[in-house]
Fold this sequence. Notes:
By secondary structure, the protein is α+β, with helices and mostly antiparallel strands. Helices cover 38% and strands 13% of the residues. The chain has ten helices and eleven strands. It has a five-stranded antiparallel beta sheet with strand order 1-4-10-9-6. Residues 1-11, 82-86, 206-212 and 215-220 have low confidence and may be disordered.
Amino acid sequence: FFCRRKLTLIFLLLFSMSEALFAAINASEGGFVHPSLTLRAISSAADDRGVFLTAPVDANVTLISVPYSLVIGPGPDPEGSAASAKDQDKSAPSAWLRTVASLMKAEAALRAAKPDAAATPERLYLSTLPAAYDTLMSWSVEEMDELRGTGLHASVSSDADGSAFRSGFEKLRPALVGLGADDDFEGFRRASQAVVTRGFNCLPPQSDGVAADSSSSSSSSPAGPYLIPCVDLLNHSSLSPTSCLTLTSGGAFTVTSTVAMRSGEEVTHPYMKDGCNGDLLRVFGVVEDAPARMTEAELGRGDIVEACGEVAEEE
């Protein structure tokens, strides 16, 4: 009873902050959140929630629009960052590291702010970010063993003790400090997981100013990653997504409905266009019941013989 009550309180707190964030985005210049959007619990788990509609909407309706000034990203120019990526000095910090540093600096500013400081969209957004992320990095060795027999296990087993991540941090530390972030491993680890699991990459607008769909094919390189308030509350669906994310020529990130939706329907977005459950689990910490592409299994003769023996014993 106590745990259930605690989870309910956690969700109510998240719901309250999310509703305040919706209102703050609406009140900002260039920001918009459709009045029918609301955060709703899907199950009793504290982090199992989604964005739902309280009224029907047609296809091609703007649901969310967030100006770049409210986004945590790699730099000040979302339209040019992808175009300049090819010409970037190889020794310069990557866009991913710049976004991680931007998040770390924003979180440090939040911690240093006075308790009665104004509730800006950025502060409200940072308050909605989880304290911990259910990525493979946080799995125990026993939980990691559940992946044996899949191609994913070999590639992620080093994540179990965090040694590979620690080694990566040591190599990136000078660049991170040079970007103005604190020399803090735990802060870097938390920010990295936030950027990986919640960051979006978008194609830059086409030369005619028309926004390019982030899931469409294009010769341009995606820009990002970006942490976009409100947008990262959308759950993933690769089979039947109901929205798409675009970067407009005005520098705003816009979520548009791709189909007509009924009241009570969830707004979803494809995190990864062609990813299998293994890719989704490693990058975002989620899996689908019926993914568009299956995760390959690696079964040796001994695995098959052992499984047959277990079945025979059960019968």
